[in-house]
Amino acid sequence: MTVEEFWRECREALPGLPADMPEAWAFGALPEHADELLALVLAGTKTATASSLWDIEATGEMMPRPGDLSIILDGSGTPRALIETTAIAIVPFDEVSQEHAFAEGEDDRTLDSWREIHERYWRRHSESPRGFERGMPVVCEEFRLLHSSFNSSPLSC
Question: Which of 34, 49, 62, 81 is least enclosed by beta carbons within 10 angstroms?
Answer without folding.
Answer: 62
